[in-house]
Design goal:
The protein is an all-alpha fold. The protein has six helices and no strands. The longest helix is centred in the C-terminal third of the chain and has 25 residues.
Length: about 140
Amino acid sequence: MNCAFAGRIKFLPPCYNYGSVQIYYNWKTQKKISSPTPFMTEEEYKSAVAQPAIVHFLGEERPWRAGNKHPYTPVYQLYLNMTPWKDHPQDEGWRMYFRAFYLFNAVTKPFPVLRYHIIDALIPAFMRHRAKALKKK
């Protein structure tokens, strides 16, 4: 695709790729943790945070998982209620995880780069543990 569309690729503003990273990390921290990759400007970041066009529910914090408190869950729920799947139950088994996750967020809020490095190590370990538990079932 890169060869076929070379020279004709248009970049979308960051508001079309709004995710959990914008919730938990300010612009300065995101710039630091993404270095040396080029990053959006502070103005682009602020615009995306103020008016996201597409919200990606990244990581574990997804609105269809019971116990999550993602700030865009109410918007997700609004549109879900307009679909044939509106009565589908939430994915259970995440409540304890989310309790720990939100406690972790509160404790690490003053240390965003440390939070990033811990999350970067913990999530893969947690997912391996969960996969093993699901195989046993």
